[in-house]
Amino acid sequence: MKHPTPRQLEAYYWTHIVGLSQHEAGDRMGVTNTAISNLLNRFFEIRPKLKPDIHVCKKIKTAVSLTEAVDDDIVRRI
Q1: Residue 73 has pLDDT above 90, yes or no
Q2: Rounded to two decimals, what is the model's pTM?
């Protein structure tokens, strides 16, 4: 049975356990976002059961982040 490399495990740890974005994980590991993506793809080839199911949590297209909202609008709604 093939085992993940330490770098693949580290990429998985930062992105899926700690919850950092791939860009933030790349900064911590000293590699590019593309390298993180490649490490995670190879990791999920070895451990496919750990790959998150994208159909469980669908993205809400109408969601607005708090940085895009006007502060007055937030105060009025609360």
Answers
A1: no
A2: 0.68
Q: Which CA distances in Å does 53 have to 21, 30, 47, 58?
A: 17, 28, 13, 10
5 near 15, Cβ under 8 Å?
Answer: no
Q: What is the pLDDT of residue 51?
A: 87
> What gap in Å lies between CA 51 and CA 32, rounded to an integer?
21
Phi and psi at 30, nearest 5°, equal 80, 30
Angle at 58 between CA 43 and CA 53, to 5 degrees: 25
- Residue 58 confidence class, pLDDT cut points 50, 70, 90: low
**DSSP H helical ranges for 18-70:** 22-29, 33-46
